[in-house]
Amino acid sequence: LHLVALNLPFSGDMRADFQCFQQAQLAGLTSTYRAFLSSHLQDLATVVRKTDRYHLPIVNLKGETLFSNWESIFNGNGGQFNIHVPIYSFDGRNIMTDPSWPQKVIWHGSTANGIRLVSNYCEAWHTADMGAMGQASPLKTGKLLDQKVFSCSNQFIVLCIENSFVSDPQG
């Protein structure tokens, strides 16, 4: 399952699932992508289908492994990953080095176990109000689920996860 960043940073007011869907389509990717965020409807840990949570690796746009599987992101260690494996945007840029994302921080709105934090997810990702707060993770920590709180007015990285694996019928 591919983990890919949106092509631009976003404040806490975003239509992230729609953006993930749209940018994946524009990039020619055929599977469904959902935002790597807890929402008012769903905890982050359950965004990927149950049948795909254990046996498929989580990889970047170029197929390099970030996590052995979806569940391993939520084992309580904050989603520790190898910072030498880049995360790319849908248009192929490395978010760790590209200046389009001046702040190397990702929004997630979750606990270290992928459960939604209703007090810290920018009112279900509908506000960029400076007084509202969102849970996010500085990527320099090497964790996707580090537990830091930021104002929703910040423009941070939004990740998208391929939420269902569709095998290539021609394969």
TrEMBL record:
Domain Collagenase NC10/endostatin, residue spans: 1-166
Xref: InterPro entries: C-type_lectin-like/link_sf, Collagenase_NC10/endostatin, CTDL_fold
Source species, domain of life: Eukaryota
Pfam families named among the record's database cross-references: Endostatin
Protein name: COFA1 protein
Organism, scientific name: Burhinus bistriatus
Name of the encoding gene: Col15a1_0
